[in-house]
């Protein structure tokens, strides 16, 4: 059965009943149809003094084309925890609309580890991303309007730093010239569009602790510079007010359900490269107040996703994680051991053992944040017993951690019960001592060096004078206390996506440094960063339609 | 009290209870929070065999800066009908998001004749316009993607006819160059953005009778031409399927309530110039099946709005209107009689009588469609008794119709009870003999000439050879049976906005003819048509914010 067939044959509970499982009263849920809801601000405020439940991060080895299954493991673990009697909720990112029509398909889990209604989640959902697109583009319109009507703030037309966004894969909009057509249309200048998830508004949305904090952060966005390079902010344009008006409802966390009718918060979805790649602070904090166990994930592998989850999201929002799960698959480890994608179905224990070096470094990294952890082996049908045993033996003997075989994709929560039990043991062991990797008051250059040495295993960072100067400038401008948001390939610890396993003896070249003043981090870019995807020659869109019974077909 | 203060102090019924007033079962309403809903396709199909209730169009004299109050009269009449014991529902257009941040403010009525929740209706509402924006821009992305990947259909880059849309007032996007930045970003070409309400997808959305009809129409959109001028359609790009996927939920009619808790359908909102300016056929047909009286409005004055409502919407969708209300104000009639805006508060019966010529022509026009009608005088505080009596006397003696004074703005439905009684009398009189103005099989040139002579009072249409050739081409290409969608100034019967009253002895110059193959009409453009507004020097946005209690402030 396809994912969508499984999703359709499942029994759905009304969202108010799902919410009641974590004691959210019916009137605190604003419904969007029977199966989607938002949890009201009033209710969230009313529980804000409660102690937090336990928070578990699901992260993974460096992703490969073989697939790891981080989202399905998050869903499976959530269902598994509920099955063994824990009141658990999961927190995921909202999928981006554009890529659904390209290659990627949706992002609501798969098999028997899904969140539903998957069509809604993958399409407009509760409109959050549309609200973010609108807020972002209102600011853009206000900038060009300001310039058109006299440019009192003195924008240098060559230094407008705020692009526009659209939630669509549209490569033709990456670089555009705007303001053509004569005086009535404003001033001609270069511009461009990013996909909505790459918007700084998205990052701000996901880090804001409430509406007030959202508005405060929006005001700090640097939208451009004067001719003498003085920053101009969104606040100076009086944009934070109307942007917050557009985002007011969106900032309430969305609640849906897993196939096993357990609560799932799906809220926010920033890029995992130029942003921090985690669902909203609003959702994670809500879940932590309401559930005994909150299971959440972070984008890409642990080198990027987990590091940013800990050093940016948890540190800034005061979230205290208690344990981590590192997802791996035999197939992906074989790729890290040098096996080509076409040969993955053949048993190859030696290559797998060699690829375990990738797993090892991620496990050691997570330990550096003070967290107990377990490896989840997301089982595929082609995996052999010898391969699975080899991973378990490696984890136990070389890393001192357990590796649990999970079959949630085929079996739902039952396939993750052993993992759930292991997670509960870790958490109840009380050994967690979460700490960020670097202190906030370290210099920006030093923080970046700490990340690449401690997490990536690199020798050092390298950068030309212009980039090094920018680090200094940002410190002089008062941004030295911001955490670092690394942007590099997800496929390797290094900046070369082809260097699998656990590369050593390399440097990390820094190409560019960008300020996200509202998100309150400094983006350090180490490679090409694509902020507007394109569609493939045969887009997934071509096959999609609504059938005679009103069902969406070929959305995957 | 401001509109928003009145709206906030009102008692709101849960939307399921509102829907029950016209016998919609609770389970047929998909909730979006407590006060907004969509009526399910299944339920609409289940009532499709019922006979239609009565349909009343609210239209007006040519709009002036003095304001007419067509929307408030629609709301007031709906409430008035309910007060006198009729089961009535109103149908309005959804407001566009962009202009809310400019000058205009929202469009949910005013005073004690409003639809609520006004903040939601004026902002994201149920996401319909975002869905339309997404569907429109998916098609745009698929076009440039097709060209990028080989251009099998042979688009002439200079003749791509599909622009992009955004629901924001952003003049800098009117004319842009896209595809810059190198090979990976596609081919450089000219492009541009319209505001979402100007999208042909919006017009199609509003004319589609069901999802299947929507998909069929989307497939017919002409998106560009080959070098030898052969049309290329959205269907050839396999775009209608995924576009319908994006629009599936949006096409269900939205239901909200008036301040007096009566049902209001608010669905779709096409431009009243390059499109037909009426709410969706889905909503009007739903209301007609469910209510005894459906009160709806059309954009601009009766010369544009009512003509298109009758000749495009009613004719194509098989809606049979039974009566019309022509809204006028003493102030607006004085402006048509030559009074300057600053002098409107002074009594001036002579100017008013002279301005009644404008009213007269609209009344005569509506009669040409075979409908009984009443004039609604939307009373303003500065109106004098002499002025109001003059309008009533003119209507009675010169036009043979009643003119009823309405005070719904200040008094709600009670202020429109007399109007409601009059409408019921007209309808129950059974004198309606609705007929379109011109037969479908008349030539496109002839149809246009019929409209300008019969409705505008012009001598003839004039156009240069290029435009006349285009009329012929469209007939040769098989579009001769389409109705005409006139695009001209709303402020005058003529194409000169300064010609108030009832001008005579003028021609209507045609500047351009555009095909809307999916909407199934031919747009005849007689003047400048603005499809992307800009923001003013001090946008309304600047004053908006969310207050400490989560309320949106300064949205009007």
UniProtKB/TrEMBL annotation, chains A, B:
E.C. designation(s): 6.3.4.3
InterPro entries recorded: Formate_THF_ligase, Formate_THF_ligase_CS, P-loop_NTPase
Involved pathway(s): One-carbon metabolism; tetrahydrofolate interconversion
One Pfam family this sequence matches: FTHFS
Keywords tagged on the record: ATP-binding, Ligase, Nucleotide-binding, One-carbon metabolism
Transmembrane segments: none
Binding-site list for ATP: 64-71
CDD domains: FTHFS
Signal peptide as annotated in the record: none
Catalytic reactions on record: (6S)-5,6,7,8-tetrahydrofolate + formate + ATP = (6R)-10-formyltetrahydrofolate + ADP + phosphate
An example molecular function term from Gene Ontology annotations: ATP binding
GO biological process: tetrahydrofolate interconversion
Enzyme class: ligase
Family per record: Belongs to the formate--tetrahydrofolate ligase family.
UniProt protein name: Formate--tetrahydrofolate ligase
């Amino acid at each position: 059965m396809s994912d969508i067939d499984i999703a359709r044959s499942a029994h759905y509970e009304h969202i108010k009943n799902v919410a009641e499982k974590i004691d959210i009263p019916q009137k605190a849920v604003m419904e969007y149809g029977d199966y989607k809801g938002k949890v009201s601000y009033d209710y969230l405020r009313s529980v804000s003094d409660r102690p937090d439940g336990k928070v578990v991060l699901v992260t993974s080895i460096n992703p490969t084309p073989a697939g790891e299954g981080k989202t399905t493991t998050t869903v499976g673990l959530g269902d598994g925890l509920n099955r063994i009697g824990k009141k658990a909720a999961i927190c995921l990112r909202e999928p981006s609309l554009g890529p659904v029509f390209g290659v990627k398909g949706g992002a609501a889990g798969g098999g028997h580890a899904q969140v539903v209604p998957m069509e809604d989640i993958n399409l407009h959902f509760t409109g959050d991303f549309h609200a973010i697109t609108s807020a972002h583009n209102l600011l853009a319109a206000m900038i060009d309007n300001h310039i058109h009507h006299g440019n009192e703030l003195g924008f240098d037309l060559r230094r407008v730093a705020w692009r526009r966004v659209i939630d669509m894969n549209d490569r033709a909009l990456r670089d555009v010239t705007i303001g053509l057509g004569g005086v009535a249309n404003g001033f001609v200048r270069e511009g461009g569009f990013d996909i909505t998830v790459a918007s700084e508004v998205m990052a701000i949305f996901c880090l804001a602790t409430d509406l007030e904090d959202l508005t405060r952060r929006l005001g700090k966005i640097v939208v451009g510079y004067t001719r003498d390079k003085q920053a101009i902010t969104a606040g100076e344009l009086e944009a934070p007010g109307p942007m917050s008006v557009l985002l007011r409802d969106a900032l309430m966390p969305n609640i849906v359900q897993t196939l096993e009718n357990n609560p799932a918060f799906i809220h926010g979805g920033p890029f995992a490269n130029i942003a921090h790649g985690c669902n909203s602070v609003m959702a994670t904090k809500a879940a932590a107040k309401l559930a005994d166990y909150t299971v959440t994930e972070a984008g890409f592998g642990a080198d990027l996703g987990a590091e940013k989850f800990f050093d940016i999201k948890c540190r800034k929002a005061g979230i205290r994680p208690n344990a981590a799960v590192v997802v791996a698959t035999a197939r992906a480890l074989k790729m890290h051991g040098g096996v080509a994608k076409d040969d993955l179905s053949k048993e190859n224990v030696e290559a797998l053992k060699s690829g375990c070096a990738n797993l090892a470094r991620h496990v050691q990294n997570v330990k550096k944040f003070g967290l107990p952890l377990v490896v989840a082996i997301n089982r595929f049908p082609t995996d052999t017993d010898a391969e699975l045993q080899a991973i378990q033996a490696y984890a136990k003997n070389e890393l001192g951690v357990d590796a649990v075989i999970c079959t949630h994709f085929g079996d739902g929560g039952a396939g993750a019960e052993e993992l759930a039990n292991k997670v509960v043991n870790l958490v109840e062991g009380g050994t967690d001592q979460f700490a960020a990797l670097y202190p906030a008051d370290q210099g920006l250059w030093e923080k970046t060096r700490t990340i690449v040495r401690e997490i990536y295993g690199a020798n050092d960072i390298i950068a030309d004078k212009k980039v090094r100067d920018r680090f200094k400038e940002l410190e002089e401008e008062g941004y030295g206390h911001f955490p670092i948001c690394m942007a590099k390939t997800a496929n390797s610890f290094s900046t070369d996506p082809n260097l699998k396993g656990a590369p050593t003896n390399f440097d990390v070249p820094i190409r560019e440094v960008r300020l996200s003043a509202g998100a309150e981090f400094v983006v350090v870019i180490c490679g090409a960063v694509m902020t507007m995807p394109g569609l493939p020659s045969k887009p997934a869109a071509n096959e999609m339609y609504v059938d005679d019974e009103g069902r969406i077909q070929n959305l995957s």
